[in-house]
Amino acid sequence: MFTPQDFDLFRKGDRQAFKCIFDTFYKALLIFAKKYVQDNDLAEDLVQEVLVKLWEKRKTIEDASTIKAFLYMSVKNKALNYFRHQKVIDAHQKEILLDKSNELFFKNHLIEEETYRLLVQAIDDLPEQTRKVCTLSMNGAKNAQIAEELDLSTSTVKYHKNQAITILRERLKDQLFLLPLLAHLLDL
Q1: Could you tell me the CA-to-CA distances from 124 to 32, 92, 135, 167 in Å, in that order?
Q2: Most CB contacts within 10 A, which of 31, 74, 98, 184?
Q3: pLDDT tens over the chain, length 188 residues
Q4: Which residues contact 92 (CB under 8 A, 6 or more apart)?
Q5: What are the φ/ψ torsions at residue 173 (nearest 5 degrees)?
Q6: Residue 172: which residues within 8 A CB-CB, separation 6 or more?
Q7: With contact defined as beta carbons under 8 Å apart, do 182 and 165 qualify?
Q8: 10 Å Cβ neighbour count for 83?
Q9: How far apart are CA 11 and CA 26, in angstroms?
Q10: pTM
């Protein structure tokens, strides 16, 4: 048990007196800390930090009766500060993730725009009749509709679609990922 004589020795830096304080309050402070943080290791860390703080401030403590209040209040404040700090860290991590997500979105958008630009340029460079067939097909028209609209036979429409794929495959050989898309768009 902690006595007034122990308090005087503690203030003078006596380690045995500090051990007496430690033994008196440690377990109770640990239980108190666990109610806040619900983590054994963290509770132990908080209590140990508070006890170190008590040792460092021993000369400023006026009365033995204030030690208990000091310890419990310090543990409570340490726990609350820990949670505030965690909230700041969590908010910062969310912000970083959001920034990365936005950056990825814009990169993907730029890639899509560049891909679309390459595709449109390659289609614009097709021979006129092949380009018309390709454009109508990409807009969802079936071979019979394209044949009727351009006054062609369906076999000629198929020929122009195959011609478009052959030419576009050559022009877009560095963008191989576009070829399945083209085949799908041209309904091949």
Answers
A1: 75, 47, 9, 12
A2: 74
A3: 667 788 888 889 999 999 988 998 999 999 999 998 989 999 999 999 999 999 999 988 888 888 889 999 999 999 989 888 888 777 878 887 777 777 777 777 777 777 778 888 888 999 999 999 988 888 888 999 999 999 999 999 999 988 988 888 888 777 766 666 666 666 65
A4: none
A5: -60, -25
A6: 118, 119, 122, 178, 179, 182
A7: yes
A8: 11
A9: 19
A10: 0.50
What is the number of residues in the chain? 188
The CA distances from residue 36 to 62, 82, 128, 156, 188, in Å, are 28, 10, 75, 78, 66
Q: Are 156 and 147 in contact (CB under 8 A)?
A: yes
Cβ-contact 90, 128 below 8 angstroms: no
Place of tokens 């076999």: 155
